[in-house]
Write a structure and sequence with these properties.
globular; about 5% helix
Length: about 625
């Protein structure tokens, strides 16, 4: 029935497109930067990109990036133990999706490599201007880890005029015990001098433990979580053609002691400090961008299952240092991008690296991308990246993309892209060992692993008219030497990682939006995913179908309502058992009282959908029905 409901809703969307009504045709003029590391128009950018802007993010209560991206085409969000969100793009999990903030990597996964999702909670919500999601490999520009795609959070920049905003939000579960969530944020921006601007945001958020005996009678359904975040950016206009940006980010994310299974407890926290300095210049021949970036994460990981390899609590440090330089040269109907990057990762962990106390990895890279304007309607993008890894040697990742922009609103584009992922430190280090098998064995690194590689083909068409937009994309991604972990035979004292021969992920994606009237708009998307390993098996934890639909109704200039639905289709759990999907329905609205006060309220998971109520073997634990209210004060 859920499938039928979503199919009917999508059919309504398709039929509505035939109406010629009022519209705002500025949507296709959105600018994005992730596909080429410079500003480009969304419709003609050489990649499949979705954009979520700040206004859309602020409509609903947001816990992390999983909540932000849940309605994006080609994206599936798995909500599991403790209520944590795992993000998949076209079937590739977070280990294959590169997370960026303003083009800078965010990563604590080499240190707290299992059971942590601190990277998707790192950025204060009110600092986000938009989120760009690139579906498909982007190693030609960004190197390792961009096999499945790229999530690039673009933050707000210092403004010419002073602005101060206080935002607070409260959400409460209607069933079970606890589960309340609060979030408060202070945001400010303005000019300190004629040439020096500042932006800052400070956020605190708390999530109480939620216990629902119908779902998890022996342990916490959703864990307690406390976060504090600070993000500040200074922009100095050094000269008419030069700027210097200094960014500082602080992230303190803590999960107090919680029962995460019937037999185990855990506690985790991270304190992350990130500092970056960026110089941008505009010259007679083009532009340059020079960046130095350092991210230091101090983590604590406590787990009662570490009895096999004590102590139960471990202190772990991870440091990422990156230097990157890029030059942009427009000339002779082409835009040339050329640059280089140095990336070093260091991990200090005396428990899981007992003989060395940690490990490190260095990588040097050179990249080039050139976009040619052919005739008046065609553009061809050719690019490639050369990486030299201290452990895995040299790797070259090319890509080619062709865009045809017709005069009647039609854009057809497609291409081929390659990507690679070097094994993580814990996967490949000969000195790494960690508790696994529920505390019954050790998981060790394998220095004989090969880097994972992929080749992706895609073709898409976008049709834009004054009252509606449509797009369709087909893709085929073949991943070789996929790194996975051995199945435990329930006897051996150790197990390790190995390379799977080949995995194929392919599918189709449809998106559409239509202005039904001057005040009512409807937008939706549908994705179908087919996965297959070298032995013909389907990958676990990936829904075959996802669909999203949202209706916005602006009753007045100050008052709007929305209703949305998210369908997560059937999938295999970790035991390769077929599980049914579910549909989430949300409703809410916001009211602009005056220039300084804005209110919002609504219901999430209206039908109280819970897969675990119908199937105790499911690995999906959803937050139950909740009511939320929010207030924004602007000065």
């Amino acid at each position: 029935m859920q499938k039928c409901v979503m199919a009917q809703l999508l059919s309504v969307l398709a039929l509505s497109i035939s109406h010629q009504l009022w519209a705002d045709d500025g949507e296709m003029e959105r600018m994005v930067v992730t596909a080429s590391a410079k500003d480009q128009q969304l419709s003609t950018a050489p990649a499949s990109i979705s954009v979520i802007d700040a206004e859309e993010i602020k409509q609903m209560p947001v816990k992390d990036l999983g909540d932000v991206l849940r309605s994006s085409v080609g994206v599936s969000v798995n909500t599991g133990t403790g209520g944590r969100n795992d993000i998949y793009i076209r079937g590739m999990g977070q280990g294959y999706v590169l997370m960026l903030i303003n083009g800078k990597r965010v990563s604590s996964s080499n240190g707290l490599w299992r059971g942590g999702n601190f990277d998707v909670t790192a950025i204060p919500v009110d600092a986000i201007a938009r989120v760009e999601v690139v579906r498909g490999p982007m190693s030609a520009l960004y190197g390792s880890d961009a096999v499945g795609g790229v999530i690039n959070v673009i933050t707000k920049q210092p403004d010419e005029h002073w602005e101060l905003t206080l935002d607070t939000e409260y959400s409460a579960m209607t069933d079970g015990d606890g589960g309340d969530r609060t979030r408060s944020n202070l945001f400010g921006t303005g000019k300190l001098t004629d040439t020096l601007g500042v932006m800052f945001t400070a956020e605190t958020a708390d999530q109480d433990t939620w216990n629902n005996e119908e779902l998890t009678p022996a342990y916490d359904s959703i864990e307690e979580r406390n976060t504090k975040k600070l993000y500040t950016a200074f922009n100095w206009q050094v000269a008419d053609n030069q700027t210097l940006d200094l960014d500082y980010q602080y992230d303190n994310d803590k999960v107090p002691l919680t029962n995460y299974s019937a037999t185990a407890q855990r506690e985790q926290k991270i304190e992350r400090n990130t500092l970056s300095l960026t110089h941008k210049g505009e010259w007679g021949w083009g532009g340059t961008e020079l960046m130095a970036y350092r991210e230091k994460s101090a983590m604590y990981d406590y787990n009662t299952q570490y009895r096999l390899q004590p102590p139960l609590g471990r202190d772990i440090d991870e440091i990422n240092t990156i230097y990157r330089g890029t030059a942009f040269v427009p000339a002779f109907s082409q835009d040339l991008t050329i640059g280089g990057e140095y990336h070093k990762t260091e991990v200090a962990d005396v428990v899981q690296y007992p003989t060395t106390g940690g490990d490190s990895s260095e990588q040097y890279s050179l990249f080039v991308q050139d976009q040619f304007d052919l005739l008046q309607q065609f553009s061809l993008t050719l690019g490639g990246r050369y990486d030299d890894n201290q452990d895995y040697g040299e790797r070259f990742s090319p890509r080619a993309y062709l865009v045809y922009n017709a005069d009647n609103g039609l854009v057809v584009k497609g291409g081929v892209g390659t990507a690679f992922r070097a094994p993580s430190l814990y996967e490949s280090s000969a000195t790494f060992a960690s508790v696994s098998c529920g505390g019954a064995c050790n998981l060790t690194g394998n220095p004989n692993l090969q880097p994972e590689t992929s080749v992706n083909y895609e073709l898409s068409a976008m049709w834009h008219q004054p009252t509606y937009e449509l797009s369709a994309t087909v893709y085929h991604n073949r991943v070789k030497d996929l790194i996975t972990v051995e199945t435990w035979d329930r006897v051996s004292a150790t197990r390790t990682y190995y390379n799977e021969d080949e995995v194929t992920l392919q599918g189709i994606e449809f998106t559409g939006n239509v202005d039904l009237t001057a005040d009512i708009s409807l937008n939706g998307n549908y994705s179908y995913l087919d996965t297959e390993t070298g032995t013909g098996e389907e990958l676990t934890g990936r829904p075959r179908q996802t669909a999203n639909l949202k209706l916005d109704w602006h009753l007045t200039d100050a008052f709007m309502l929305y209703a949305s639905g998210n369908y997560y289709g059937s999938h295999l759990n970790s035991s390769a058992e077929r599980k049914s999907g579910y549909t989430l329905l949300d409703f809410g609205g916001n009211y602009q009282v005056n220039d300084h006060v804005k209110l919002r309220a609504g219901l999430t998971n209206i039908t109280n959908q819970e897969p675990a109520k119908d199937d105790e073997d499911t690995e999906i634990i959803l937050p139950g029905r909740a009511v939320f209210v929010g207030l924004t004060l602007s000065l």
